[in-house]
């Protein structure tokens, strides 16, 4: 008889959620983690970065305080204090996860795991663990550029950046995705000269084109240079800074460069090739139920290469364990899972972009509502941005929603519920929002798609 019903390799949001969920459903669970539980997200990603970004939000608020009749002496900014606070937050959260694992009776084994044969995991501390089901939740790691070793510590990873105690005098961020734009906002708020180099035609290339364009305009207005259709061909250092050669011949000089060019799955050393587990683009290939091609072996989180977000990993974990426990689940539809970027203005979305929706057909209607027409946004001086709702003409369902502006990441949650319940855009437009709230912009954008917003005139498209 196997030692456990479920063995989870990796203790990030997908891994610890799988282990806790398994215990809740009466399954014997073991979690194998070689570092601290919480994974990249909790230790060196989502949580510490948001703690630092909140500091940047406060700096931004103080800079705008005179508009509210509030004046104080010159601000003294110490990023190092904010970094220390972020590590304290991480330590408390890690301790909380450890307590939850213990309270749920999950066995935690510290070490690396390698699947040696069917239902068997060899741990780097010498243990051998057998389990009826094995869940791979090893996460991902940042991609690196081929010439980074030649410039040493002048090239920062996101992990390095989270520990940097002083904002750079100048920095080039290679990659205009979520990590790149968040650090751009952080460092520019603390006074850095920031340049973003993005290989695609626009920043946040996976987001709706209108949103990407709006964010680029906002960044440019704050003095952040954005270079699109750009790539770095080489880098050298003189010991005091870094010099980056771009396609087209331009050279960018800065104190540091940040690599933010995406992630690859942590698949090395797991024994997957020997077991015949199928890989695709350095990720574990899974079906719509997170099953690998080998029965009894599952994968969740960033290692699958699906939406690389902590909340997606946790949701995948619950779906996997529910199946192991014999429960009925639905196949994954990743278009119904929200995405969020925590720069300012915030960006959040769910569903298809307008270009994707029009390419797939059938026809769509688009409703837009600018935050400058929202009472709460105007009252709080957070009127930058808009809400965009797309309606499938055939079904009247919500094809997608895109928000840029105040509390975008919070606002998108109600659209996530709406899409899960398959409500129509008319239902979303009929839902009563408290006044005054920024959430009213969701209602008005849905109204705009269905005949016209009350507080902003626009024709249906």
Core attributes:
FAD/NAD(P)-binding domain, alpha/beta, 7-stranded mixed β-sheet, 14 helices, Enolase-like, domain 1, globular, 461 residues, 24 strands
Report on this model:
With 461 residues, this protein is an alpha/beta fold. The protein folds into three domains: 4-142 and 264-333, 3-Layer(bba) Sandwich (FAD/NAD(P)-binding domain); 148-261, FAD/NAD(P)-binding domain, CATH 3.50.50.60; 345-449, FAD/NAD-linked reductase, C-terminal dimerisation domain (Enolase-like, domain 1, 2-Layer Sandwich). Helix content is 33%, strand content 24%. The chain has 14 helices and 24 strands. It has helices at 13-24, 39-44, 46-64, 79-103, 158-163, 178-189, 209-221, 272-275, 310-324, 354-360, 375-379, 408-420, 425-430, 440-449, and strands at 4-9, 29-33, 107-110, 113-117, 120-123, 128-136, 140-142, 155-156, 170-174, 193-197, 225-227, 232-237, 242-246, 251-254, 256-259, 263-265, 279-280, 283-284, 297-299, 339-341, 346-351, 364-370, 385-392, 398-405. Strands 1, 2, 3, 4, 5, 6 and 19 form a seven-stranded mixed beta sheet that branches. A five-stranded parallel beta sheet has the order 8-15-9-10-11. It has a five-stranded antiparallel beta sheet with strand order 20-21-24-23-22, with helices on both faces. Strand 5 (120-123) and strand 6 form a beta hairpin. The protein is globular, with a radius of gyration of 23 Å. The relative contact order is 0.11. The model has no long low-confidence stretch (mean pLDDT 95).
């Amino acid at each position: 008889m196997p030692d456990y019903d479920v063995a989870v390799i990796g203790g990030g949001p997908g891994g610890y959620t799988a282990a806790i969920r398994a215990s809740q459903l009466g399954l014997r669970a073991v979690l194998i983690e070689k570092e601290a539980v919480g994974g990249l997200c909790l230790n060196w990603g989502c949580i510490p970065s948001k703690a630092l970004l909140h500091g940047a939000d406060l700096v931004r608020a103080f800079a705008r305080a005179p508009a509210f009749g509030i004046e104080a002496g010159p601000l003294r900014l110490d990023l190092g204090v904010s970094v220390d606070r972020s590590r304290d937050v991480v330590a408390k959260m890690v301790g909380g996860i450890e307590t939850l694992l213990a309270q749920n009776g999950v066995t935690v084994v510290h070490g690396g795991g390698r699947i040696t044969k069917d239902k068997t995991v060899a741990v780097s501390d010498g243990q051998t663990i057998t389990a009826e089901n094995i869940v791979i939740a090893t996460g991902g790691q940042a991609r690196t550029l081929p010439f980074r070793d030649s410039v040493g510590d002048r090239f920062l990873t996101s992990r390095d950046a989270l520990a940097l105690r002083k904002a750079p005098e100048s920095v080039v961020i290679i990659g205009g995705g979520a990590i790149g734009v968040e650090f751009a906002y952080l460092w520019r708020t603390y006074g850095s000269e920031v340049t973003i180099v993005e290989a695609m035609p626009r920043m946040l290339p996976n987001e709706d084109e209108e949103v990407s364009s709006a964010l680029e305009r906002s960044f440019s207005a704050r003095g952040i240079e954005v270079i699109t259709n750009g790539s770095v061909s080489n880098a050298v250092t003189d010991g005091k800074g870094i010099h980056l050669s771009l396609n087209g011949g331009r050279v960018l000089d800065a104190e540091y460069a940040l690599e933010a060019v995406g992630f690859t799955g942590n698949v090395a050393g797991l024994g997957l090739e020997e077991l015949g587990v199928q890989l695709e683009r350095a990720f574990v290939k899974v079906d719509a139920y997170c099953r690998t091609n080998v029965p009894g072996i599952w994968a969740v989180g960033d290692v699958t290469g699906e939406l690389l977000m902590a909340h997606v990993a946790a949701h995948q974990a619950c779906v996997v364990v529910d199946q192991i426990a014999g429960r009925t689940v639905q196949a994954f539809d990743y278009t119904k899972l929200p995405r969020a970027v925590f720069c300012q203005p915030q960006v959040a979305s769910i569903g298809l972009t307008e270009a994707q929706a029009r390419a797939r057909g059938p026809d769509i209607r688009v409703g837009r509502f600018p935050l400058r027409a929202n009472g709460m946004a105007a009252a709080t001086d957070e009127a930058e941005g808009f809400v965009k709702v797309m309606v499938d003409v055939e079904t009247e369902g919500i094809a997608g929603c895109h928000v840029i502006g105040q509390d975008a990441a919070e606002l998108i949650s109600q659209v996530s519920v709406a899409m899960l319940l398959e409500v129509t855009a008319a239902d979303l437009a009929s839902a009563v929002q408290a006044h005054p709230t920024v959430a009213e912009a969701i209602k008005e954008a849905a109204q705009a798609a269905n005949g016209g917003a009350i507080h902003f005139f626009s024709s249906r498209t």
